[in-house]
């Protein structure tokens, strides 16, 4: 599993550098589908401050649409921003926020 995540992060870097070379840096934060495999689909998002988010979805889940993935990234980004704006959070420390954990847990679906 980690091999395709590393490959996906390479794709993120390629997309960021390609956008940086284009006229005017009007970057779309949502990078779309980065790396589909037989088992998983990996989507990417990068913030203005170059923080990268990756969402991995089971390939058998055909009910999730692109706009829903975008919405998940927006929620994740907004929650992350709330954590970073907390004056009691030290950048670089692990995130210890029940609100952030709740957002992330709400996005995860366990099948079993």
From TrEMBL:
Q: Where in the cell is it found?
A: Cytoplasm, Perinuclear region
GO cellular-component term (any): perinuclear region of cytoplasm
* InterPro entries, per database record: Longin-like_dom_sf (IPR011012), Sedlin (IPR006722), TRAPPC2L (IPR044760)
Swiss-Prot/TrEMBL GO biological process terms: endoplasmic reticulum to Golgi vesicle-mediated transport
Query: Per the record, a Pfam family?
Result: Sedlin_N
Superkingdom classification of source:
Eukaryota
Q: Which family does it belong to?
A: Belongs to the TRAPP small subunits family. Sedlin subfamily.
Supply the name of the protein: Trafficking protein particle complex subunit 2-like protein
Report the gene name. Answer: trappc2l
């Amino acid at each position: 599993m980690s091999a395709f995540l590393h490959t996906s992060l390479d794709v993120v870097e390629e997309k960021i550098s390609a956008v940086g070379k284009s006229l005017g840096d009007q970057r779309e934060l949502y990078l779309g589908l980065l790396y589909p495999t037989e088992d998983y689909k990996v989507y990417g998002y990068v913030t203005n401050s170059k923080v990268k988010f990756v969402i991995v979805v089971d390939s058998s889940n055909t009910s999730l649409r692109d706009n829903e993935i975008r919405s998940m990234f927006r929620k994740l980004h907004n929650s992350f921003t709330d954590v970073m704006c907390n004056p009691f959070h030290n950048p670089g420390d692990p995130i210890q926020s029940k609100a952030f954990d709740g957002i992330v847990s709400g996005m995860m679906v366990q099948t079993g």
